[in-house]
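Data card: per-record layout.
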Amino acid sequence: MILIFSLLIIFAMLSTKLSSKIGLPLLIGFILVGILAGSDVLNLYYFDNALLTKRIADILLIFIIFEGGFRITKKNFESVAGTSLTLATLGVALTSSVLGIFIHYFLKLDIIYSFIIASIISSTDASAVFMITKENPIKNKLATTLNIESAANDPMAILLTLTFIQIYTKTFHSPIMAIILLIWQFFGGILIAYICYKTTLFIFDKFQSDNRGNYNILIIGCILFTYGISDLLHANSIISVFFMGYWFGNKNFPSKQGVSNFLESITIIFNITIFIMLGLLAFPSRFIYVWKSALFIVFVMMFIARPVAVFLSTLFFKYNYKEKIFLMWGGIKGAVPIVLATYPAAYGMKESNLIFDSIFFAVFLSCIIQGTTLATLAKFLKFTEKRKPLSPYSVELHSTKTTNFEMYEILVQDNAPCINKKLFELNFDKDVLISSIIRNGNLILPKGNTTIKENDILYILTNEIKINEINQRINS
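The structure for this 476-residue chain is written out next.
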């Protein structure tokens, strides 16, 4: 079993190279590996335990969603916060409502049952969107809007899905109590997130360990504590984890770069694990029974529900017609809808297999159709920007105490005024240190008479309040 699982991981990672070249979301490559190894194809491992998948995926999603919040910078968040959060809340609700109504009237399904299906598939996939915006340098305003929306809309989809499942299974005994519970789940989750963020910041500041790995273990405990205390107090744990990640990621704390790298690594591993498990759980032979309804769901979702949601959600924000079209097409589905599709089985719904198969096939189609064409649409609408060079090196500051100093990475842009100037001519303050320069993939140790060239990547150690001024002096 261990040998098979190791081969699955290796093949899944190798598939990332193909995914990057053809613009196919990583989700597809990982799921295909699981499907090939599953019972319907090579039959290397029989797996049909939806309840176990849900339990494992619930734990792994804690860290995936935390990392999504952790990566959102305050600057980017504030620039498109209104639009992104509206899309992540109202947009998800509108998508679910429109799609649910169409499913009810055209597929002749029970109204609550229809809303369960619609809620499950209402959120977009952060990993798929992040990969596409990273591989294809899209206009910052649009890329940031999609990135934040995709990272922030999972809690709303989870909340809606659980609500309608509880209504369908008659778990809610009082409509008034249900509304109060929903309000507490959302706002209580945010309140608990803030308290846990402050507590985690205090713990990290007082920890003072010389072993960097200890900070990685510590962040795992703090993330799980945030989830656990929210669950204990009946608030929405996913919302708590996401906002705790956002606030914590935007503060300096000991060993931040190491923790950031650790989170990125485990998130990749957890994504692979979820996708392979979901692939194993899929039975393509059953798709013959759901392909018509899945095609209908995908069509309504892409061409009716998502456009309506984007149009209404951006009504009071400054986005032109072409930008709205791009956002409409950016509603790529992914891991969370497939994981949510296991929830009906966990709650004992008889129609759970039908829901899972329909959602799985619909998500698969969305990834293929929207995931492979979003970059092409960006080029057609002229929303692409010049690709920025990436550094093959990582330079970081390790500190056992909280400090206002941090190592920052600044790219010397085209036509920057500092090009062909020597470092000493920039007249930086004494508390600004250029530790290294990356030029054409090579690391250079700078001196005062080192000349700055176009597309140089500068690693600068300085106070956080000065970095914007330094960036302006270099590039403006």
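Known properties of this structure: Residues 2-380 form a domain with the Na+/H+ antiporter like fold fold (CATH 1.20.1530.20). The first strand starts at residue 405 and ends at 411.

See the next section for split statistics.
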